[in-house]
Amino acid sequence: MIFSWVYEKEETTLMKTFLRSKGVSKSLLATIKFDGGSIWLNGKERTVLATLEKGDKVMIRIPDEGEHETTVGVDMPLDILFEDEHFLVVNKPFGAASIPSKVHPRLSMANRVKGYYQQQGYVDQVIHIVTRLDRDTTGVMLFARHGYAHALMDTLLRNKEVDKTYRAVLSEPVLTETHGFIDAPIGRTEDSIITRMVREDGKQALTEYWLDKSYPDGQTVKIKLHTGRTHQIRVHFTSIGAPLLGDDLYGGKADPDMLRQALHCESLAFVHPISGEPLKIEAPLPDDFIKWESRQRDKEADIRVGTTI
Question: What number of other Cβ atoms are within 10 A of residue 298's Cβ?
Answer without folding.
Answer: 10
